[in-house]
Amino acid sequence: MSLVNITGLHKHYGPNHVLKGVDLTVRQGDVVTLIGRSGSGKSTLLRTINGLESFDQGSITLAGQTIGSRDAKALQQLRLQVGMVFQQFNLFPHLTVGENIMMSPRVVKGESPHILREEAHALLAKVGLADKFDAWPDQLSGGQQQRVAIARALAMKPQVLLCDEITSALDPELVNEVLAVVRQLAQEGMTLIMVTHEMRFARDVSNHVVFMHQGKIHEAGHPADLFSRPQTPELQNFVSAVM
Amino acid sequence: MSYQFDFLAVAREAPELAAGLARTVELTAVACIAGLLIGIVGAVCRAWQLRPFNTLFAVYVEMFRNTPFLVQLFFLFFGLPTLGIDIAPDSAAMLAMVINLGAYAVEIIRSGIEATPKGQIEAAQALALKRWQIFLHVVLRPALLRVWPAMTSQVVIVMLGSAVCAQISTEELSYAASLIQSRNFRAFETYFVTAGLYLALALLLRQTLLRGGGRLLKRGRP
Amino acid sequence: MNDFTLGDILLALLHGLQWTAILSLTAFVLGSLGGLIILALRLAHRPALVWLAKTFIEVFQGTPLLMQLFIVFFGLSLGGVEIPPWLAAALGLTLYTSAYLAEIWRGCVNAIPNTQWEGSAALALNRYQQMRHVILPQALRMAIAPTVGFLVQVVKGTSVASIIGFVELTKTGGMLANATFEPFLIYGLVAAGYFLLCYPLSLYSRHLERTLHVAR
Ligand SMILES: Nc1ncnc2c1ncn2[C@@H]1O[C@H](COP(=O)(O)OP(=O)(O)OP(=O)(O)O)[C@@H](O)[C@H]1O
Ligand SMILES: [Mg+2]
C-alpha cells in the first residue's frame, strides 16, 4: 500500500518552473533514491514532501491524508509524519546532543522527560554514539553530528525519513559511518526518500531509483536495471559521468 | 598661585556616595531587565512583521534613538504632570531608562534574531515545531548570545547616561556628588572621585554582564 | 501662554537648535582630529603609547559625559579663572568624541585582514606606508557608516552641556518651559528638534552601511 503519493506536482520560483508535474508513489518500507544533475529539482521535491516548500499545483497524500499547498494545520500533521536530515546537519548549537534529540518530542508532543531520556539514549546507541548524550554539537565531528541529526529525526517516530545529500558536507573518511546508519535503517524497514551522489550506495540500498531531469521524473526503476541499462540518453550521460 | 587638592573632603562623604551608587545600580538593574524584555518582544514583532506592532515598535525605536535621554527624562518628568499624570523623580528616571534601553534593545536583539542561520529554522520546522516554539526553543538563546556584547555595551551606556537624572532630583550617584560639592565647595575633587566610581561601576557592570550573561546563555557549553 | 506666542517659542528654539548644531559640529571636527591622534597612539608599536591610548578610551567610555564636562569645567577654573560654559562643553565633548571615534576606527583597521599587512610588507613598505597606502584607504570606507552613526550620539550628547549652563536647544527648552508652564509642548518641540537633526543622520548611516556592504 502506498505511503506517500505525489501527483502532478508543479512548483515555480518566480518565473523559474522548477517542478513540472512530478508523480511519485512510495510504499511502506521503500528506499527511494533521487538522482539527477544539479538544479534538476531533487531538493525541491524532497522539501515539498514535508512542507518546507509550498507548491502550486498537484497534491501530496501521506498515509491516506491529502495535503493542500497552504494549509498550516495539515502541514503540521505532515511534518509529524515526515522526518528530515539535512546536508548541513543543522543541530541546535545551544542544546546538548541529548537535548537536541528530546526537544521536539517534548515541546511538540508533550512526552514525558523520563521516557524521552530512555528513548534518546537508545537512539544514540543505535547510531553508535551512546556516550555522547551530554556532549555539545560543536565537540563532535561532522559524521557524528550527522548521526545525531538522524537520531533527532527518528525521535519523532516519523513514517518517512527524507535525506538530502546528508554526506555531501562530510570529509570522505566520515561518509561511511553515516551511510552505515542509513543502511541499517533501510534494513529495519524504515521508509526512506533520499538524494545522494553516492551512486554505489544508492544501488546497494535502494529498491527504487528516480532520475530527475529539468523538473521532471525522466526515468525511474529498480537500481539494477536503471544503472546497468539506462534507456534515455540523458540518464546514459549522467550514469557515465558519475559512475 | 597653586591650588591645594583636598580629597579627604570627599572621602568624608563616603556614605552619601554609597547611597547614590546603590540607587544607580538599582535603576540600572531594573532598566536592564525590563529593557531586555521590551527588546525581545519588540524584536519579535519587527522580525516577524506582526502588524501593527512592527510599525509601532519601529516608530518607538526611531523616536527614542534619535532624541537625547535628558530630553526624554524632562518630557516624562515635567511633561506628563501637565496631562494629569504625576510621576515621582525615581519613577520618571526608571521609566526613562527602561524606555531608552528598550529602544536600543529592540534593534540589537532583532539583528541577533535575523542572523539565525536558515538551516536552524528549517530543521525545527521539519521537527514539527510551530513558529513560536521555534522562536522560544531554537532562535532566542543563540540570538541573545550573538548580541550579548552589544547589549552589554548598551546597558553600560544607559547606566552612564543616568547621571543626568540628578537634574530631576533622582538621588543617584551624580546627585550625591552635586550635594557633596555644594557642602564642601570642592567641586573638582568631588566630581573626580565620582567619575572614578562610575568608571569602576562601568567596568564591573561590563564584566558581570559579559560573564554572567555568557554563562547563563551558554550553560557550560565550550 | 502668557506673553509667548507659538512663533516666539519656535524662534527661540530654533536659535537653541543652531547652537546645538554648532557645538555638535565643533566637537565632531575637533574630536575627529583627537580621534586620529588617539588612534595613532593606539596602533603604535610602543607599549607605553598603546597603554596611554587604551586608558584614555577606557576612561572616556567608562564615565558619564556629565562628569567629564563637570571635571573640565571645574578643573579649568581651579586656577581661579572663570571659564565660559561653551568652552568647557566644546572641550569636554571633543575629548569624549575622540575616545569613541578612536575606538570605532580601530575596529575598522582591525577588520582589515592580516594578509593585507603581510602583502604590503612583502612589497617593502614600512609601517607608516602600509598604513597610509594600504590599510587606511580600506578602513576608511568601512569607517564612514559608523562614524556618521556616532555623529548622532554627539548631537544627543550636546544636550548634557545644558547642565553646565551652555544655552543650546535643551537649555532653551528648559527656560521656555519655566516661563510658559507648557513643558509638554516645549519638550515635545525640543525632542522634535533633535529628531530633525538626528534622524536624517541615522538614515544616512544605515544607507551607507547597506551600500558599502553590497559594494564589498
Ligand atoms: N529558494 C529558491 N529560490 C529560487 N530558486 C530556487 C530556490 N531553491 C532552488 N531554486 C532553483 O530551483 C531549481 C532546482 O533546485 P534544487 O535545489 O531543487 O536542485 P537540486 O536538484 O537539489 O540540485 P543540487 O544537486 O545542486 O542540490 C534550481 O534552478 C534552483 O536554482
Ligand atoms: Mg539539492
Q: Any key phrases for this structure?
A:
heterotrimer; A: 243 residues; alpha/beta; Rossmann fold; 6-stranded mixed sheet; 4-stranded antiparallel sheet; 9 helices; C: mainly alpha; MetI-like fold; 82% helix; 0% strand; flat; binds adenosine-5'-triphosphate; binds magnesium ion
Walkthrough of the structure:
The complex is a heterotrimer of chains A (243), B (222) and C (216). Chain A has helices spanning 42-49, 72-81, 97-109, 113-126, 142-154, 172-187, 199-205, 223-228, 233-242, and strands spanning 2-13, 16-27, 31-36, 57-62, 65-67, 82-85, 160-164, 191-195, 208-213, 216-221. Chain A has 243 residues and is of the alpha/beta class. In chain A, α3 (97-109) runs parallel beside α5, α4 (113-126) packs across α5 and α5 (142-154) packs parallel to α6 (172-187). Chain B has one domain (8-218): MetI-like fold (Orthogonal Bundle), CATH 1.10.3720.10. Chain B contains 9 helices and no strands. Chain B has helices at residues 8-11, 14-48, 53-65, 69-82, 89-114, 118-126, 131-161, 173-184, 187-218. In chain C, 82% of the residues lie in helices and 0% in strands. The radius of gyration of chain C is 21 Å and the shape is flat. The N and C termini of chain C lie far apart (56 Å). Chain C has one domain (6-215): MetI-like (MetI-like fold), CATH 1.10.3720. Chain C has 8 helices and no strands. Classes of the chains: A alpha/beta (243), B mainly alpha (222), C mainly alpha (216). Chains B and C meet through α3, α4, α7 and α9 of B and α2, α3, α6, α7 and α8 of C. Bound molecules: adenosine-5'-triphosphate and magnesium ion (MG). Adenosine-5'-triphosphate is lined by residues 13, 16, 18, 36, 38-44 of chain A.
Condensed summary:
The complex is a heterotrimer of chains A (243), B (222) and C (216). Chain A is α/β, with parallel strands linked by helices.
List the SSEs and their pairings.
The complex is a heterotrimer of chains A (243), B (222) and C (216).
Chain A: E1 2-13, E2 16-27, E3 31-36, H1 42-49, E4 57-62, E5 65-67, H2 72-81, E6 82-85, H3 97-109, H4 113-126, H5 142-154, E7 160-164, H6 172-187, E8 191-195, H7 199-205, E9 208-213, E10 216-221, H8 223-228, H9 233-242
Parallel strand pairs in A: 3-8, 3-9, 6-7, 7-8
Antiparallel strand pairs in A: 1-2, 1-4, 4-5, 9-10
Chain B: H1 8-11, H2 14-48, H3 53-65, H4 69-82, H5 89-114, H6 118-126, H7 131-161, H8 173-184, H9 187-218
Chain C: H1 6-43, H2 47-62, H3 65-76, H4 85-111, H5 114-122, H6 127-157, H7 169-180, H8 183-215
